Amino acid sequence: MSGGVDSTACALLLREQYQVRGFFMQLVQPDFAEQLQRVQNIADRCNIPLQVIDLRSQFQEKVLHYFSTSYHNGSTPNPCMICNPEIKFGLFMDAVIEQGMEKIATGHYANIVEKEDCLYLQQGEDARKDQSYFLARLSQKQLARVLFPLGTMQKDDVYDFVETHGFTDFKGQESQDICFLGTESIGDFLQKESGDSSATGDIVNTAGEILGQHNGICNYTIGQRKGLGISAASPLYVVQIDADQNRIIVGGNDELFQRKIEIKDLMWNCDKRPTVDKSYRVRIRYGHQGGEASIELLPEKRCRITFKDQQRAVTRGQFAVIYDQDLILGSGEII
């Protein structure tokens, strides 16, 4: 339980069929006490017991270290892609199962289907809220223990459902993108963590000409236009983050497009590899709808993805998720 509408809806739905207990992760949320009070109130109203699982040290080691290191290396990390398999459906799930539970249910908008003795993540029915992308790295063992009760529902119907049970104060509230930041900026967080995230450096164009100064590479992302502090005859965008030289490289919009990308740390669902002469849909970030592409396998758990149409703002450190229609086939980190 997180204190949001989705996990509340799960609890209300599942208590009609199962014995339900609520579990809340203690990570490093800056407003933990406030969150816990909210979750406890919801659990009491749902008439289910609540237990807190303390995973602060493990979250620091597995997620925050990855987050900080990625930014310092010039990559843009996706902490949810690490947290879900390692923490939420890893250590947290293990702790829940140890308490005698048979399954763990969450409020993600995704589905699980079985096909040819393999469990597949399937996109949620609500295309606007589909969260299958963030769950792409879950193993067969993890999928076998999970329920996604909201996978076949629309978000508006979820709001209507909880309102029929007296929860009328959820509308307009959405969980924040990065749970451990609170109101803190990424730059401030990294400064606090390592003390050197705000080292200034040059902003250069693709020809290497200095156009201005940046205030720390962690404060920039591929495709960014606003906040560069430089002027030019035509709009300029961040096209590359050069951590080795501590530079931000900018260029025109046309320089943000590319057709080929390479990914590492490939994970194939049930070890089912893609067919060479078949096209797949590949998403390169959460908000990306996906582009048609072919897959070329490379050594050392890598592959090259060639899109039919050029894709904008491919970002190193984000994850490419490969879909066979609406089922997840595999994923890897963009390098």
Would you kindly provide a written description of the structure presented here, covering whatever features stand out?
- This protein is of the alpha+beta class and 335 residues long.
- The chain has helices at residues 5-14, 32-46, 56-72, 79-98, 140-143, 155-163, 186-194; strands spanning 22-26, 50-54, 104-105, 110-115, 118-123, 146-147, 201-205, 210-214, 237-242, 247-251, 257-268, 280-283, 291-298, 302-312, 319-324, 327-334.
- The protein has three domains: 5-163, HUPs (Rossmann fold); 199-251, Roll (SH3 type barrels); 256-334, Translation factors (Elongation Factor Tu (Ef-tu), domain 3).
- It is built from seven helices and 16 strands.
- A six-stranded antiparallel β-barrel has the order 11-14-13-12-15-16.
- Helix 1 (5-14) crosses helix 6 (155-163) and helix 3 packs antiparallel against helix 4.
- The radius of gyration is 21 Å and the shape is globular.
Oligomeric state of this protein: single chain
SSE string: HEHEHHEEEHEHHEEEEEEEEEE
- What strand line-up does the widest sheet have? 11-14-13-12-15-16
End-to-end separation: 34 Å
Q: Radius of gyration over alpha carbons? A: 21 Å
**Shape estimate:** globular
Number of helices: 7
CATH topology of the largest domain: Rossmann fold
CATH superfamily of the largest domain: HUPs
Strand content: 25-35%
Overall CATH architecture of the largest domain: 3-Layer(aba) Sandwich
Largest sheet: 6 strands, antiparallel, barrel
